[in-house]
Amino acid sequence: MGTQTFTIPPVRTGFRWRINPHHSAEMDADANAWAFGLFSDDPRVPAPVPADNYTTWAALCFPDVDPDLLTRWCRFNALYTVMENKQEALYGTSGAGSAERLWERTVTLLFRQSHAEDVFTAGDWGDGLPRYNLTAAMTIAEKLPESLARLFLRRIAYMAQAQYREDHAIRSPRMGWGEYLEYRHVNFGVPLFTATLPALLERNLSADEWESTERGQLDRLTAHHCCLVNDLYSFRKEWNDRNGKKAHVQAVSVLQHAYGLGIQKALDRLVETIEETERQFVALRSRWALTPEADEYCDRLEDISAGNLRYHQTSPRFHGGGFEGVFTGGELRVTGGRSGRP
Q: pLDDT digit of tens for each residue in the chain (342 aa)?
């Protein structure tokens, strides 16, 4: 099979990444062992690939949290990696119906827990994937104030809902760019991160600041930035993984369809869009963050965007086993395929 070569332009950013000093190889191993242990009786679920290293993602997005909360986030991220593996296995063996029923049950339980009279008391979660999902969710929720715990659980429910609808929602790139963004930023899960931020602040936002349209838009821009960065750096992996099996549908192919672009022009447009999203964030922050509380909140949003970018530029998940270093941009080779003209 032939190959095609493209170039990813470097993403220019003013955000500065930091990594949590409490993160370690031992914490990563603990999280993966905990997550995989829950599925140890299911031969369809492979052990997490250490190169995926989703715990590093947590450490980069939350550089200041204490060791206990970081451990909980690492376990949460590791468990979701395993659950995605399980979902793929179910689609490949039992079929889409089986996988979707499990996610539907998970969504129902998450919403039910978020509205329970005592949100911190476990309900009847049953067994299997729904129970594991709730177990992971509650390790974070129990560290939050009640109102944020309820919001966090609902955000996971929205993400899980997007997960089980993925095979239908983005079966084809024939969708509008705005429609794709609306779906993708929920599916990628960054709204889970932003839901917990008020609990991490030294100074509380006022009620007006929290409820403001501007604060919500800053959250959304952060989520857009992060999901588009993921689409950029996962482009090669997803193309190669899906080649010949199903349509390669993500930001690049949606941009191709929406604007009549070749692959290289779509990659260029995607980088421009990521940079424009950051500029919009910076401009809105300058207008809205007029108090120390709002300024600190925006700092935490920038931590998420910066950490997410750094993770995608350094993780072997996106650049191949054995990769070390930083890939900010450069030549990209993919196997020959079906995603349109160069």
A: 578 899 999 999 999 999 999 999 999 988 888 887 776 665 555 555 444 678 899 999 999 999 999 999 999 988 877 776 666 555 555 555 555 677 788 889 999 999 999 999 988 888 777 888 888 899 999 999 999 999 999 999 998 888 766 666 666 677 889 989 988 888 888 999 999 999 999 999 999 999 999 999 999 999 999 999 999 999 988 887 766 455 667 899 999 999 999 999 999 999 999 999 999 999 999 999 999 999 999 999 999 999 999 999 998 888 877 788 999 888 888 876 554 555
In the three-class reduction of DSSP (H, G, I as helix; E, B as strand; rest coil), residue 5 is classed as strand
- In sequence order, the β-bridge partners of residue 292 are none
Our CA angle for 1, 312, 310, nearest 5°, is 150
How many whole angstroms separate alpha carbon 276 and alpha carbon 295?
A: 21
Signed CA dihedral, 153, 159, 160, 161: sign only: positive
Q: Which residue is it, tokens 């006022």?
A: 206
Q: 130-139 burial by CB neighbour count: b if 16+ within 10 A, else e?
A: bbbbbbbbbb
Q: pTM (2 decimals)? A: 0.91
CA 64 to mean position of chain CA atoms: 19
Task: Identify which of 295, 329, 331 has the alpha carbon closest to the alpha carbon of residue 197.
Answer: 295
What is the secondary structure of 36-84 as a DSSP string?
Answer: HHHTTT-TTSPPPPGGG-HHHHHHHH-TTS-HHHHHHHHHHHHHHHHHH
Query: CA-CA distance, 309 to 115, in Å (whole number)?
Result: 34
Kindly give, in sequence order, each residue whose CB lies less than 8 Å from that of residue 180, ignoring residues fewer than 6 positions away.
170, 251, 254
